[in-house]
Amino acid sequence: MKRAEIPSLDDLRAFETIARTGSVRAAAEELALTHGAVSRRAANLAAALRLELLEPEGRGLRLTADGAHLAGATTQALDLISSALRDIRQRSAPAPILLSCERSLAMRWLIPRLSGFQDRFPEIEVHLSTGGGAVDFGRSRVALAIRRLDFPLHPDWQVQRLMPERVGPVHLPGGAVGMRDGDYVALGSHTRPEAWPNWLRDHPQAPKPRSIRMLDHHFLMIEAALGGLGVALGPLVLVREDVVRKRLSAPWGFDPDGTDYGLIAPVTGPEPAGVLALRDWLMLQAEADGSIPAEI
């Protein structure tokens, strides 16, 4: 048969859907057409081919031998077309951007804001991974990383500073875990074991804690402070919302600790438009959230 003699694809699709689903009603629901429209398309196909494709069986329909042969071939053809279209769309769609971020920063700063980026750029797909320290861009698929810049930076990296790190003691407002009388538990993180000793050294007038309790990560330390277990030495970027909303009190304010958060990317030529958009958005978020709350 010449290709010019192939019947209407709409009629073939209606017939194939009837054959696959087993009824005109089910085919109509799948194709979002009326029962009558699907029946007419199947009838048009049979008339064009001058063949009986469907025959009554009780209250339903069954395929004739010719109908079964055509239905099988049509299903295969439509599956091939669908597969080809899926491959084309996947190749033409921008590759997802893999963004790596330190775990506590991801949980308490990035993830609550990331939906804002997706709302603004729905065509850009961002995948998030967590990690700390140096990034092996050669072995990983990471396109952009957010890190506290407290480790040696590779000369082949492109580094853009986001905001300075500021830290300060935070605890429940007006609770018994406050620092006024010195009878408090200091909450620290194993990722920065010297943070409390350094802060107490720089603030000799501050009451000394009765003990320092270490947790594995900053987000656990902050949750412990919110649960009334002690006084956390919290980075401003991680506790800002809690202080602004008065869930935590920061009576000593926040001091720079000499480090910065930054964006790190490999120097591999021009960045894709999606990575540039994500970079600019992150810079705007950092600029908006980097200030110290007016009331602490």
From TrEMBL:
Source species, domain of life: Bacteria
Residue intervals of the HTH lysR-type domain: 7-64
GO molecular function terms noted in the UniProt entry: DNA-binding transcription factor activity; sequence-specific DNA binding
A biological-process GO annotation: DNA-templated transcription
Listed InterPro entries: LysR-type_TF_proteobact-type (IPR058163), LysR_HTH_N (IPR000847), LysR_subst-bd (IPR005119), WH-like_DNA-bd_sf (IPR036388), WH_DNA-bd_sf (IPR036390)
Pfam families: HTH_1, LysR_substrate
Keyword DNA-binding applies: yes
Keywords recorded for this protein, A-Z: DNA-binding, Membrane, Plasmid, Transcription, Transcription regulation, Transmembrane, Transmembrane helix
Ranges that cross the membrane: 219-239
Family note: Belongs to the LysR transcriptional regulatory family.
Protein name: LysR family transcriptional regulator
Source organism (scientific name): Gemmobacter fulvus
